[in-house]
Structure of Nitrous-oxide reductase:
Amino acid sequence: MYKKMIMPGVMGIMAGLLASTVMFADFPGGGGTASIASANGDAEKVYVPFGKKDDYYLFASGGHSGQMFIYGVPSMRRIRTVPVFSPDPATGYGFDKESKAMLGGYSWGDLHHPAFSETKGEYDGKYLFATDVANNRAAVMDLKTFTVMDMLQTPNTSGPHCAAFVTENTEYLFLPTRFSVPLGNEYAPLDEFKTKYKGVMSAVKFNEQSKKQELAYQVALPPWSFDLSDAGKKGSSDWAVMTTYNTEEATTNLEINASQKDRDYIVLFNWKELEKMVADGKADHVNGVKMIDPAKVNAGIYLVPVAKSPHGVDVTPDGKRFIASGKLAPAMTVFSFEKAFDAVKNKKFAGQEQGIPVLDYNAVMEREVNPENALGPLHTQFDDKGFAYTTMFISSEVVKWNIETGETIDRVPVQYSPGHSVSAEGDSASPDGQWLVALNKLAKDSYLSVGPSHPESMQLIDLSGDKMKVVQSAPVDPEPHYAQMIKADKIQTINVLPKDEKRPNSVWKQEEARIERHGNVVDVYGIAMRSKFTFDAKASRKDVIEVKQGDKVVIHLTNIDLDEDITHGFGINNYNLNMEVQPGETKTLEFIADKAGTFPIYCTNFCSALHQEMTGYLLVSPN
Ligand code: K7E
Ligand code: CUA
């Protein structure tokens, strides 16, 4: 009954998306929401009693919220929101000097694909990378503190949707882009699309010493849209693959014009060769970046034809195959790296496109997998037993199939229209099996209504038995494009930031708190502790900052409470400023006191029984 009621709505959307009518089939193992509700034995599986912790961390991308959402699996309890590309008043991210500079003036971002740092193809639990489709940035989150420590903006590019993915030992983070633009993002009429526009891929290195990302080089690919990518593993670890659509090079009405050809491509490239080419001085210099042009040099880049408008491409855990999913095709296509390497070696080319050799489809393709009535395959994940799990956007299900034979093993409906799914350690060389989370684009009537727009949904699927079983569902804010799931014990957070007396601008002894004036600049070296602020140890009112209108005020605040979870906030009434200072942390707030008046200061983070008393004043005397 339930299922029937909502189907017309879902179908309407599908029909709109595809401009064609799609039929819902009744799938084996169906039963929809009813099967979740009636699953009493399943409640035990996902129940994590108070005092016990989840087995896995799930990092779900927050899409155009620019944030990352952290959940525990199997409970699916949301633990934290970590701001990445957008300011966050709760933590003061984007308010304090350092994070404000890091955000570069942007107040939003579009986070699609997070990726863990890897060592020998395994998640090492150290860092999480993410890219911003909106403003061409790449960020690194430190998993010791769950805070972003570096941000890099890439020139010559637009919309690194096709990222982040890291190579086997985090040698590189590659950022191919969804939109082609003229180099330097300069003005060029769309009539010059074929000649002036490029789909640039950036190769970014992360320096663990300096904790900074560095743009190593770029590759000027044809003006196509690059969609998704994955790095090789083991025998294919020097290689990476990415899907591309709009090889028609349409500049308008892409819905129709970018789906003209029956075939698009998977770009197969050898990053070791690219690296060598750059080292050998074969790159041009464009706007201060080393740029490889595959039309000019034989760059170790090849094109593999694939069914039109592909979306995901995923490398199997053993590194032997890559699987493409076509949003307009009903099939997953399994390609063999070994066959591709053979084709490259023996020059089995079917032609070339803009100087890049095209490999013969049949020489590289191993099998087309076409489960009956399954429609809209988007992304594939893996378990520890040689099975693949592909999300079907249009037929709203997850299909489990055998990688070696292509045989369909099981299918389970999800509510509704899954984009990605993520399995436990699913992108590593040794996935865990056990859990898969489907990231559904439409929750429809799954939760209490909150108006016309609904949350997205994540459904936890138990992979341990012969049959997949949906055992839990959790709402998630827009928009879970992708997620990463890691064993909880791989992540070692710190409880307090180290007391470092040499840290610039930090003050650890109350008697050293001081206010210094240098011309129009007022530097405050203050302390936050339970339950007071000390800005000026020598003043009669130690919790007051007095400045003149127009002064530049620089407040350095150190939280000297070296106790787990004792965080202080620092908000200034009517000055639109707030920041969080974690235990042992020093943060700087910088602003022009352009408004004269009396402005209460208060701790915004509940910290003790006398938290309410943790206040002070900012007095700005008029000119
Ligand atoms: Cu939503 Cu990976 Cu941006 Cu597919 S992406 S669905
Ligand atoms: Cu410090 Cu509340």
Remarks:
- Residues 531, 568, 603, 605-607, 611, 614 surround dinuclear copper ion (ligand 2) (CB under 6 Å).
- The radius of gyration is 26 Å.
